Amino acid sequence: MGFHTFDAEQAARLEDAAERYRYCSREELLGMLAPDPAAVVADLGSGTGFYADDVAPHVGTLHAVDVQPAMHDYYRQKSARDERAERGATEPGLPANVDLVAADVGDLPFADDALDGAYGTMTFHEFADDASVAELARVCRPGARLALVDWSAAGAGETGPPLSERYEADDAAAMLAGAGFDVDRADERVETLAVTATR
Question: pLDDT by residue (tens digit) across 129-174?
Fold first, then answer.
């Protein structure tokens, strides 16, 4: 991934629902993604599985992609504490339809056109470059939805990565359009950007 990856030693901070939902609620993310119940979707930079747990009940398969295996370890431990193992999970504690994938967004282990959708929450700045966005285009089938919410370079920098490591909504939209996505929405908000696109 790009400039800045979240420190896995601080993973517990990613479970603060009040803080996370302040910038992107479950309802907003699901509205942007508009998943089909049978969809195959990837969470790009899934971290502790915070949003994976929100999206998984609404899709067929969720690939939780993170470059840091320590984040997957945290997700497993968290899920085990939540006693989800008895729900038919393939890995102890994880929702049954969640598949943990240790990979960089620039080198995804999926076939061409494998995904019906993908999303990233506060991670676009970690993987954003032309090669990674082209890789996303490769694995997203025509018609697939991409939803991105991230820290914006137009924000005040009150939290999140340094402003120098962020993008503005228009920059993210241009990068996606250059890779073959049709951008449906590119909004600047108080501290974040929101971009929705279709392959």
Answer: 999 999 999 999 999 999 999 999 999 988 889 999 999 999 999 9
Domain 8-198 in CATH 3.40.50.150: yes
Closest C-alpha among 64, 145, 75, 137 to residue 106: 137
Report d(CA 49, CA 194) in Å as an integer.
20
φ/ψ of 144, rounded to 5, equals -65, 145
The CA distance from 151 to 162, in Å, is 9
Cβ neighbours around 37 below 10 Å, total: 8
Q: What is the CA radius of gyration of the chain?
A: 16
pTM above 0.85, yes or no: yes
